[in-house]
Amino acid sequence: MSENLQTVIAKISKIFDQFVLDLKSMNSKAQVLDLKSKYIGKDGPLTIIMKGLKDATPEEKREIGKKSNECKDQIEKMSKSLLEELEHKEINRSLEENWIDISDRDSIRAKGLCSSGYHPITTIQREIEDIFISMGFEVLDGPYLEDDYHNFEALNIPKDHPARDMQDTFWFKDMAHLLRTHTSTIQVRGMENRTPPFKFVGPGKVFRCERTDASHEFVFHQIEGMMVDKNISVANLMYFSKLLLSEVFKKEVEIRLRPGFFPFVEPGFEIDIRCLICAGKGCPVCKHSGWVELLPCGLVHPNVLKYGKVDTSIYNGFAFGLGLDRLVMMKYAIDDIRLLHAGDLRFVSQFASI
Ligand code: DAH
Question: pLDDT by residue (tens digit) across 248-268?
């Protein structure tokens, strides 16, 4: 061998030292990969040294080979750990840069992510709230997690009443708590801390354990309304319902009144509107009947008023429970309720300017 063993070993050490120095100035993954292949690639200084060992003794080859492999391993290890570090930095930087507060419409807009707007259900809910606020109604809220009393008992649906089967309930294991199946719970809660006369609406999500199809979802939205005063009649109920529906649709809609059964009202009604999607010809949304049930309602059952500590010898009332999802579907001719809940931006962004 032309050079002696120690000189070659020292050379390898120097190569390694130089690598360590070069590595310090690397600040991208690509640079690190380039540097690594420059040092330990097939044209790198270590390969050249190994190739120059033709006339070395087996002893020398072994020593130098060992040193060279150690050096390669170190280069490999150090590159790997720097690559990982840079990778983390990159992830953190991108998390920081791309972080968005999805509750902040302005920041979403500023990032040009989408022309954000309210979900059509939110829009229609607020519209209806405004209509009722303008008529002197309060807007109340209520919890999703309810108990048997507020969802059933105080609404004149005692245990074992067949009407419980009308509403497929998500029960909790204790069988005393549930996800509210309707916003009528807000009637019960509203009466708890009010004395008549009063009138309020209560919008919100409701939950039913049922199979989904074009017109059913297991989470949907209702707005409950209740008015308690002296001498409330069906005529009052009709007045508010007509006003509400014509304001929402911004046109005269064809409606029909049918008797309907709900344990919490007597008499109970269903107000249907002519299906706006098929103009009454029949489609999956109206179950091919040409009519869509929109507004179940009635005069509040005296038992319900009694649970609410309302003196039924002086006061009575009306109540209704409006399904918001169907209303949105009718208003914008949407033929599948599942579109409302799929979170598909292509769908919701169509309502951005509404
Ligand atoms: N709570 C009923 C349901 O979800 C809807 C309803 C019907 C509400 C009649 C009312 C009413 O206030 O009077 O099916």
Answer: 888 878 888 899 999 999 999
Any idea which residue has 């069988």 for tokens?
175
Under 8 Å between Cβ of 179 and 144 = yes
- Nearest-atom number in ligand 1 for the CA of 320 is 12
Low-confidence ranges of the chain (pLDDT < 50): 354
Write down the H helix ranges in 153-292.
185-192, 234-249
3-state secondary structure 17-42: HHHHHHHHCCCCHHHHHHHHHHHHCC
Residue to probe by mutation, ligand 1, list 262, 269, 300, most atoms within 8 Å of CB? 262
β-strand partners of 207:
219
How far, in Å, is the centroid of ligand 1 from the Cα of 191? 16
Burial class of 278 by CB neighbour count within 10 A (0 to 12, 13 to 18, 19+)? middle
Has this prediction a pTM greater than 0.90? no
